[in-house]
Each structure stands twice: as C-alpha cells, then as structure tokens.
Amino acid sequence: MPALLLPSNPLRNPEHPLLALGIEGSANKLGAGIIKHAPDGSSTVLSNVRHTYITPPGEGFQPRDTALHHRKWAFKVVHDALSSAGISLSDLDCICYTKGPGMGAPLQSVALVARTLCLLYDKPLVAVNHCVGHIEMGREITGAKNPVVLYVSGGNTQVIAYSRQCYRIFGETLDIAVGNCLDRFARVLNLSNNPSPGFNIEQKAKNGKRLVSLPYATKGMDVSLSGILTAIEAYTQDKRFRPDGLPKFTEDQDIITPADLCFSLQETVFSMLVEITERAMAHIGSKEVLIVGGVGCNERLQDMMGIMARERGGQVFATDERFCIDNGIMIAQAGLLSYRMGMTIPLTKSTCTQRFRTDEVHVSWRA
Amino acid sequence: MASISASEKLLASSRLISQGAEAKVYKGSLTAAGGVPVLFKHRFKKQYRHPTLDATLTKARVAGEARALLRCLRSGVNVPGVRMVDAAEGLLGIEWIDGSSVKRLLPSGAQDGEEDQGGVADDHNPLDTFPVSVVGLMRLIGVEIAKMHLADIIHGDLTTSNMMLRPSSSSDTQPDLVLIDFGLSYHSTLVEDKAVDLYVLERAFASTHPDSEPMFASVLEAYGAKMGKEWPALRRRLDDVRLRGRKRSMVG
C-alpha cells in the first residue's frame, strides 16, 4: 500500500443512484427534501419544500404550538416534496430526520413522522445532527473544500472547522444565539415575523444612519450577545428615541430611529462574528469561509465576511435562503452521506434530543 | 495632505511577515535599516467594520496592549518589550523575539499541510531542537500564565500560537516561554476572568492539538503550584466555566 500524505476519501461512489428523503423540524420551519446521489459522485436536489410557522408581530414561537403546526403540515409538506421530485416513497433508499439540537416538541413530531414512514415502507432510518446538516449542504452547494464554517441561526452561533473526522467548535456564543438576539429585538420593535424577523431587521437597517454605541463583547474566539440585546433594548427607552422614526419638530435633529438601532445592532454584532471567524482562520491557516444557518442569508453579513476574506486573500462561500434557512434537503444530504457509510439506526434508537453538539458527530464520510 | 506620517514611513521600510488575526505583522527597525530588529504590529483599517466602530476599537486595543505589556514587564513576566506606540494609526512596535511558536512545536490535528511549509516528515519532532520535554514545556506555559495572572493581567486570547519558545543563551539551561499578542488583554483581579482565560486556552488546546488532555493537565498543575493560595478558588471557578458552553451533554 503506498503511504500517501493525505488519507484517501472513505466515501465510495454508489453503484446505483441513491435517493434520500430528509425531514427537518427542529424550530419553526418544517421542511422536506429529496436528494439524489448518482454513481458519478454528483448530487441533485430533486425537491426542497418548506412551510414556516409564523407568529404575530411581537410574539415568538412556543414549542407546543410549533409542534402542532408541524403535525398539521407534515403530510402536505412530505407529499409535495415527493410529487415535485416525481417519485414515490417506495423509491427511497433511506429516510433521514433531525435528531437534534432544537426544540423538544417539534423534534418529536418530526421524528414520529419519520418512524411512521420507515415502518410503512420498510426503509432504513438515519438520524442527523441539524448543525452537520447545515455544514454538509453548504459544502455541497458552494463546493467549498475545507472552509472555516460560521454557523449562525436562531438557536446556534458557532465557528467550526473540520479536523480528524469531527467538526470542531472553535468559538461559539457564551449565551444567546445571534438569530435569537436579532429576533428578540425585532419583537421589541414590533416588526413582522413574515418572512422572518431577521429579514425585516435587515431591511430596516438599510435606512439606518446613526451608529449608537453598544458593548463589543468578544472573548477569544467566543462572543457574548445577551448584554448587547439589553443595551439595544435600553435605547428604545432613551428620550431621543422616536418610534415612528420622524423628528417631532424641525429642530429635533438629535434623534434615534428604529432603523438606526437595527443598523447599529447589525454592524456591532456582525463585526464581532466576522472578527471571531477571522481569528479562527488565522489560527487554522485557512483561506475559505462558509456561512450557513438562517442568519447566513443576511447580505450585510455576507458582504462584511467577503471584505474580510478578501483582505486575507481568501474567499467567502454563502448560499441563499433556500439552503441557509432550515430545510429538509440538508437533512437528506447529511443523512445520505451517513447512510453510504452504513450509519443507519434501528427503530428503538430513533430518539431525538434538544442538546446535541456539532462535535459529538463522527464525520466518517470525510478523510 | 501629501505628507506621510512617521508611522507610515516606518512601515514602508519594513518587511511584511504575516497577517495575524487582526493585524499585519512587519519586521523592521526604528533606526536606519539594519538596526536592532523590531516587530511592528499594524492594526490596519478593517474595511468590513463601520469606520467609527473601527477607530474606537483600534485605538483602545493598541493602547490596551501596550499598557498590558508594560504591566507584565514590570512584574517579570516574559513578554516582548514595548518600543513605540501610535494608537491613532494603530501601530505598535515591540521587541523582536527569536524563537518558535509553541503551536508548531506540538503535534497538531491539521489535515492539509498548506500552511505547514516546514513540510518535514512526521517522525521529526520539532521540539527536539530545544532542551525541554513536552511536559517541561507545559510546565513553562503554566508558570508563565500564573505570573501574568498574579500581575492581574488577563490575556484574553490564550492559544498555543500566542506563545513562543525562545532558546536561552546557554544551551544547558531551560528555554524561555514568551507570551505574545496581548491584543485582547485587560486588567482584572477577578477569579472569573482568570478562569475564563484558562478555559479559552483549554479549548484552544482541544481544538488544535487532539488528545491534549494530559498536556493541559500538566499546564494546570504548574499553574496551580505557582498561583499558591489563589488556586483552589480558581479551580472551582474553572469547573463552573466549563459547564457554561452551550448544549453540552447534561449527563453527569
């Protein structure tokens, strides 16, 4: 056997095309997607269907109501995924579902759907870590080889890099996730949750001009965000704050508008995220960055990351909302990779869990 | 304005050696070319950051770094000496350290050797060039961090790439461990901050050097011995801090 410097790729091309159904529902998005892995090593997204549970402005989503939403829509979403892919359940090679991390009740309702389908059609079941799903889908879509991954969503904020069959977490939030910080501030401002609170913050921020002073809390490669949320919320009680964004009279120039606050929040928080990503890149010596997760479709964050990467002679990879925001196809992609490595689970082990760290997964399909 | 500042002149006559996490690092000299070597750390304007935010952060960090270095020097911690400061321009000139980064001296889990231009075969142990064992190196690290914490300086970004091993003048004595990059450091007497500092290092060890748990244990052992009566409280707090990372398994 020749002693090669690089270990060979453990993943073999399949002998015949493989089809996987992925079902995701760890938060307020219910998604189902079907992916095909061809014998030549290529992958095709056959369908990617999603339905989001949208709450009224000023309200978050509660686990119980979210689980009810998923139960109500599961049949339609899975059915739509199958019909737009033009296949039937019996054509599938495996069924993949999100094991965690996420909200307990929604995870359980999705796991139940997956178990039922696997019993009805006698298909193998694959449990997928939600975070690994994001990373694998990002890699598949962008073609990034070995990037530093910034995973930013409503429940997670992590800087991740691959090493020895594990996605190691280099930095993460010490308290709340960045999406949670943005969403909760959107609720304070009573912004709409449709299509997502983060999207509406992003649009508002485009009209912001004034940068208000906020804490800047990086600790090594970690960040802390809860104090910033408190600080920005305090500005809405400031006597210069104008909820309608308009001066009260013509000389009323020293004002703070909701747009200014959205702008300041994004600038500060994203600067921190770009900084810890840069720190990880410098530490590892990598030149590629991949942004995944719901906040990853924020164009301001992508711009800032792009500037940073160019300053280092590297490049940034990002995807759009179809793959950034939670979806079923990413669960199918990561699940099918596991399936090809023989990592299926028996029905008795088909549990789900709210706590499931990215670095607990054995990434057997990478060298 | 056509005239360039003194700091810009210094940089123009220096050689860029690397781009760190937030600054470009140059080798140059304060006097004419060929003088005593000085390391320049230039926190250049970050285009991605809002100009106001960038200016505030840069100024505070350059001044803070110089302040922390001086405080360490006064307390006998091995750190580079300060040679010049221009906070507005984001330039800091410090003593040039001739040595190797601790990160390169320890086995790493990195797969692609793109930046490991050293590219020598795996059986060559880079630590062999120093008269110190891995455990000995860990002790040096522990002692130096303890000295820094006894001076109430928190490093803020302890990693193995922010430590250098400098050969001592005579070959039979132990080399010096020099702590570098005080860019995120600050002054604090709190047990909490010191524990977080150690935790950052522990995480850096785990992510850069797989199977490093016994190595980090010897760091802590030497650290504890040097810290003396402050250690028991610190150790308890470190255990607390470890539990704070998110989504850790709740078993045990």
Taken as a percent bin, the fraction of beta residues of chain B is 15-25%
What is the helical fraction of chain A, as a range of percent? Answer: 25-40%
**H/E element string of chain B?**
HEEEHEEEHHEEEEHHH
User: Treating each run of at least 4 consecutive H or I residues as one helix, how many helices of chain A?
Assistant: 10
| Number of beta-strand segments of chain A | 12
Topology, number of strands of chain B = 10
Let me know the largest β-sheet of chain B: 5 strands, antiparallel
Mean pLDDT of chain A: 93
Low-confidence stretches of chain B are: 111-121, 247-252
Rounded to an integer, what's the Rg of chain A over CA atoms? Answer: 21 Å
Helix content of chain B: 25-40%
Oligomer: heterodimer
Spatial strand sequence of the major β-sheet of chain A: 3-2-1-4-5
Structural class, from helix and strand content of chain A? Answer: alpha/beta
InterPro entries (chain B): Bud32, Kinase-like_dom_sf, Prot_kinase_dom, Tyr_kinase_AS
Enzyme class (chain B): transferase
GO molecular function (chain B): ATP binding; hydrolase activity; protein serine/threonine kinase activity
Catalytic activity (chain B): L-threonyl-[protein] + ATP = O-phospho-L-threonyl-[protein] + ADP + H(+); L-seryl-[protein] + ATP = O-phospho-L-seryl-[protein] + ADP + H(+)
Descriptive overview:
The complex is a heterodimer of chains A (367) and B (252). Chain A is α/β, with parallel strands linked by helices and 367 residues long. Chain A is built from ten helices and twelve strands. In chain A, 38% of the residues lie in helices and 19% in strands. In chain A, α8 (299-311) links the parallel β11 and β12. The radius of gyration of chain A is 21 Å and the shape is globular. Chain B is built from seven helices and ten strands. Chain B has helices at 6-12, 51-74, 102-105, 134-150, 191-208, 213-227, 231-242, and strands spanning 15-19, 24-29, 37-42, 82-86, 91-95, 100-101, 153-154, 163-166, 176-179, 186-187. Chain B starts with 5 loop residues before the first helix and ends in a 10-residue tail after the last helix. Classes of the chains: A alpha/beta (367), B alpha+beta (252). At the A-B interface, β8, β9, α7 and α8 of A face α2 and α5 of B.
